[in-house]
Amino acid sequence: MNSEGEFSNIRGLLAEKIAGEITLSQNPGETLRKWRRNFGISQTELSNYLGISPSVISDYESGRRRSPGILIVSKIIDALLKIDELRGCNVLRAYESMFGDMVGLSAICSVCEYARPVTLAEFMAEIDATLICGSTDVQINGYTIIDSIKAILELLPEQFYKIYGRSTARALIFTGVTRGRSPLVAIRVSNLKPGAVILQGIEAERVDPVAVKIARVENIPLLTTLLSPEELSSSLSRI
């Protein structure tokens, strides 16, 4: 970390991001599970820190217990962050290096790193995606959901690489797409290439032929999904 102040700022921004995803999710329990796994913390370890039964965490995550209120969510998030601090801030450091000045940008809707890689075939099945070109035999280590319009208006060229997180072997999911040309052009001129690109809210036959051509030239699997951004987040939390 660069300084204690910047450390605290990243911690606060990350806590706000997690809280926002959980409270706004259509399935808060699944989103809670996703973040607990992102931190590499077991249900037992989390419950021990909070002084509650592991079954309480399990019930929240499975939906057997009514969704936790903001007070409980805040306590859980604080516990995740404090356990990480006791372990040496490995997750917090990763998020700082991942999107230090990217945190808080409204163009970045969600960033997730998987504890283990999944195949693109598994990934696309969860979000009911249609493959336009490329192979599904690709390993995905995480994903970033990006508001395509806000990215065009807000994301600076030097910030673009931040969307790749800890690994370029990830799925970049662009929401609010009309034809899909702009995201692919941005990727074309960048030195970094993702494991896959998914265009949200557009049918496969409506994707700009130029976007498809770029994907083929760059050997990047290109897919579409008609799930809403909220449905995407909920579905991806199950992986």
From TrEMBL:
GO terms for molecular function: DNA binding. InterPro entries: Cro/C1-type_HTH (IPR001387), Lambda_DNA-bd_dom_sf (IPR010982), Tscrpt_reg_HTH_MJ1545_prd (IPR017271). SMART domains: HTH_XRE (SM00530). It comes from the Archaea. Residues 32-86 form the HTH cro/C1-type domain. This is Transcriptional regulator, XRE family. It comes from Methanothrix thermoacetophila (strain DSM 6194 / JCM 14653 / NBRC 101360 / PT). The lineage of its organism: Archaea, Methanobacteriati, Methanobacteriota, Stenosarchaea group, Methanomicrobia.
